[in-house]
Amino acid sequence: MIEWDEFGPEKVLEVYDPVMGMHGFLVIDNTALGPGKGGIRMTSSVTVQEVFRLARTMTWKNALAKIPFGGAKSGIVAEPREITAETRKALIQSFARAIKPLSPSLYIAGPDVGTGQEDMRWYAEANGSLKSCTGKPAEMCVKPGEECGIPHEFGSTGFGVVHSTAETISFLGLNIKDITVAIEGFGNVGSFVARHISVLGARVVAVSDRKGTVYNEAGLEIETLIKRKEATGSVTNYKPGTVLPTKELFELKVDILIPAALSDVITSENVNKIKARLIVEGSNIPMTPNMEEILHKKGILVVPDLVANAGGVISSYAEYRGYNPKKMFEMVERKIKNNTRTVLEHARSKGIKPRDAAMEIAVERVRKATRLRRETLEVAHVRG
Fold this sequence. Notes:
By secondary structure, the protein is an alpha/beta fold.
């Protein structure tokens, strides 16, 4: 059930197209800092409650990233793997037309679970504005070289995770060249994390996918690993390395563990088996707050998803502003480093978990913007 509070949600919209059978939701949680930004999730089980929780998360993530976006999210009830490309396009465009009165004025869409750059192409075409969504194909431009799409396939999220990790390592007074890393997931986030962090000098010793974990204490050669994954469908076909069950990745003795794929992968069953001294959340909600509390008490530092994986939404803002990919990556690096350092210093000064510190900062920013907007409206009303 959705619970309203001082922050929102401002609008909850449910749409249905009886001809197409399109059933979708849009939740605009808070626009105090700017239009609501959040992706379109397409799954057979998506609900308005799930969309609301994700929209609220986007409110905090955008505020913490210090970009002028509010929080929003949307969902379409469909199973992408069970529909044709033609049906998929029709569903996306039906949804885009249904919410057009609110997009892009109050809502800017983007890719999420079940959607990608082609879906954003179709969404923008149906909406009529390139500003209505981000994550579009790179060739979608207003003018050549200007205001072009920056698809998430460029790896901005993984790039940001690495710079959050590097900043944390520096904050702790460690040398990244002495660090060993295990990465859960080797998709659009995990593969870029592995590539970028190995370039910085860390030793990636284990990665996993659905078929298992490949482990080599001496380190994995990442470009070779990427090619093997592309050629065979799994990291477990990489040599040399020991193949382990996927779940054993979390029990390896490494310096840093980076969950970069699924939610709720650190649970009561494995939380006390974790040997890493630092966890950087590359994926959304890889554990519950209770699990973070257990790790905190064990002295394991957890950099939360709100901080670490904000590269995607920062990239979205860069695209929205019409920046090119080079400028986008520069913005992601700068903001991620600054935000990570700010949160860690705040956490240390108050003796609290980084997630609690991140929430304090984000809530205060949104509350201040909400209060300012309310005061502005009151003044306008009096003058009117």
